[in-house]
Amino acid sequence: MPDDRNDAGLDFAVVAKSNPASNRRLGVMVSGRGSNLQALIDAVADGRLDASIAVVISNRAEAEGLERARRAGIEALYINHRGWPSRDHYDRALAEELRKRGVRLVCLAGFMRLLGPTMIDAFPQGIVNIHPALLPSFPGLDAQRQALDYGVKVTGVTVHLVTTALDAGPIILQRSVPVLETDTVETLSARILVEEHRAYPEAVKLLLDGQWTLAGRRFLRPGSPAEG
Amino acid sequence: MPDDRNDAGLDFAVVAKSNPASNRRLGVMVSGRGSNLQALIDAVADGRLDASIAVVISNRAEAEGLERARRAGIEALYINHRGWPSRDHYDRALAEELRKRGVRLVCLAGFMRLLGPTMIDAFPQGIVNIHPALLPSFPGLDAQRQALDYGVKVTGVTVHLVTTALDAGPIILQRSVPVLETDTVETLSARILVEEHRAYPEAVKLLLDGQWTLAGRRFLRPGSPAEG
User: Fold this and answer.
1) Residue A138 resides in a domain
2) What does the alpha-carbon distance between residue B29 and residue B142 come to, in Å, rounded to a whole number?
3) pLDDT number for residue B20
4) Pick from A189, A227, B49, B155: most CB atoms within 10 A?
């Protein structure tokens, strides 16, 4: 059972202290295989991503992602989503563990639980997710199968900030991936996954580097060199 | 007023006669500038697209597209959408003019009227449209503005078969286009338009070349060389 005595005031003090721009501590949340966690671990290890992974949390004890964390010398924490009086209690427990470790940015990497307002509010614009489609097309589960069934010729990857609306937060980065005539769900998913593994560390870097703003829903980096 | 004495049986006989695989006659329908019409005219002229444009029809007398047709020596037909007892009557008139000229494939190029079942049924899988977004994202009007407001980082172009559902027919071809930080509706629309002008003749060629099938919603060309 979580300890509910921490009131909102105390919580925000902790957030404020742990979130200076120099803080590049990540918390990664997984439910399964954790291949995007591995992409983040690898990007940190080889210097593409200047960050540290403070903790990996899973709602499933048997998640391969926890094993990946241990192998990389990262704390691996199992917090069952069952047995709490409400989702809010579970969210508070997650937020507390992440804050204790000074996490600035929470990266969802195949975390199969919806987060409620308590978690979202605990990390304002500080939770990020990766989705295997070009949102707003094909939100929710089985995005690759949705894309194949719809018959699109281009799909892709979206990294976005997490809000309480499913797969609908501001978009940090997108990459397109072609759909081939011969594709099955498996071959398409594999091609998208390659792009996910490139896109996620890049997007996390953009978020940590700061200098970004939201103009309406548009994620902009006014100080960055022009693209094109 | 249209002549309603042609019954369905007669109509289908005409369609059957005018639609052998060797028929590569297009009808293009425009309401405005007709830059995608121009892309088709140019592709035919320089040999990229083995087809002939039998007629250009507009619901607006002042459409620049009609002028483009005349300049290219193509019959330009103005058929006002107003003054008919119903949309069905208007659709019959359009279908009749297209059939008279032996048109096999109807290409919408900025034609701003919804087509009803009468036109759709008159050209089964024979009406094609181009949309300035990666459908199913951003159907309907102002797709470029919708994409900017949503904050996507990738948008594009879709060429699709026309059904009675708005912008929801099977997809022939899609091309992605990046959205830049500095984009306005104007700059993004211009970048998408370049891709439209490439994509439309390509998609029309695929349709005319035949050897395609629909598997559910998926447009497939089983006989074509593998992509990749």
Assistant:
1) no
2) 19
3) 65
4) B155
In a domain, B20, yes or no: no
Residue A186 inside a domain? The answer is: no
| Residue A41: CATH number of its domain | 3.40.50.170
How many domains does one find in chain A? 1
Q: What ipTM was assigned to the predicted interfaces of this complex? A: 0.89
DSSP secondary-structure letter at A163? -
What average pLDDT does range A161-179 have in this prediction? 95
Structure pTM? 0.89
Residues of A catalogued as catalytic: 131
Q: Do A227 and B176 touch (CB under 8 A)?
A: no
**A224 in B contact zone (CB under 8 Å):** yes
Q: Do B135 and A154 touch (CB under 8 A)?
A: no
Instruction: Give residue B35's domain range.
Output: 25-128+161-171+200-216
> Nearest chain A Cα to B182, which residue?
A226
Q: Is A211 domain-assigned?
A: yes
Q: Which residues of chain B have pLDDT under 50?
A: 1-18, 228
C-alpha A159 chain-centroid distance: 8
- The answer to whether the CB of B101 falls within 8 A of the CB of B55 is yes
Q: Scan for tokens 């709602």, then name that residue.
A: A59
Q: Is A212 left (phi over 0), alpha (psi -120 to 50) or beta?
A: beta
Nearest chain A CA: its distance from B169 CA (Å): 10
Best of B150, B153, B212 to disrupt the A interface by mutation (most A CBs within 10 Å)?
B153
